[in-house]
Write a structure and sequence with these properties.
99 residues, mainly alpha, 2 domains, 6 helices
């Protein structure tokens, strides 16, 4: 599932890059691609520096996952159930409970 998000992000970057190369304005691209305008400016800087290939190889950001794929799948299954099925007193998932 993480790979799918990465592929989607790459598609957005490349689409934005092509639109930038056609002369479209960053604000218009942001709306069309569904990202913040500042993100388009960041991508524009990458594009200006390294061309369209620079947008293909943007490293993923954020903290690396601490769970492997089987642990993530177990978490997905658990979250689809009610918290009370896992011993919690209410039917509300909180960040603390998920953690």
């Amino acid at each position: 599932m993480v790979k799918r998000r990465s592929d989607e992000a790459t598609r957005k970057r490349l689409r934005a890059g092509r639109l930038l190369l056609r002369g479209k304005k960053p604000a218009e691209i942001a709306l069309e691609v569904g990202v913040a305008r500042q993100t388009v400016y960041t991508w524009k800087a990458l594009l200006d520096e390294g061309g369209i290939d620079a947008l293909r190889s943007v490293p993923s950001r954020g903290r690396p996952a601490r769970l492997d794929e089987s642990q993530l799948e177990g978490l997905r299954r658990a979250i689809l159930q009610k918290p009370t099925e896992h011993g919690f007193g209410t039917e509300l998932w909180t960040l603390k409970r998920v953690g």
